[in-house]
Amino acid sequence: MYALREIHQLTSETLTIQIPPQFRHHRAEIIVLIVPEAPLKASVTTGENHSWPPNFFELTAGCFAEDPIERAPQGEYDLRKALE
Fold first, then answer.
1. Residues whose CB is less than 8 angstroms from the CB of residue 35 and which lie 6 or more positions away in sequence, other chains included
2. For residue 49, what are the β-bridge partners?
3. What's the rounded Cα separation, in Å, for the pair 41 and 53?
4. Do 16 and 35 form a contact (C-beta atoms < 8 A)?
5. How far is CA 63 from the centre of its chain?
6. pTM surpassing 0.85?
7. C-alpha to C-alpha distance for 55 and 49, rounded to whole angstroms
8. What is the pLDDT of residues 43-76, one digit of tens each?
9. In this structure, what are the phi and psi dihedrals at residue 42, rounded to the nearest 5 degrees?
10. Could you write out the DSSP letters of every residue in the chain?
């Protein structure tokens, strides 16, 4: 599958996109999404995620200590006929 992602500043009601040669003679789905003014950024190397408020984790760590979340029993697996 080929993919093309471009971000454009829209200034009119029309948009022209140059299509790469490998896209020719194929069907394509075109989706236009509005990008937020301040896109969320995450750094894999440092673990920083700029979408969280400052000190979010420090302020919320352990907030469920008195009422921990527990996983309910999942029941037994269905017995199924073996594939042949």
1. 7
2. 42
3. 13
4. no
5. 26
6. no
7. 11
8. 555 555 567 788 888 888 888 888 888 889 998 8
9. -135, 140
10. -----------SS----PPPGGGTTS-------PPPSS---B-TTT--BTTSPTTHHHHHTTTTTTS---PPP--PPPP-PPP-
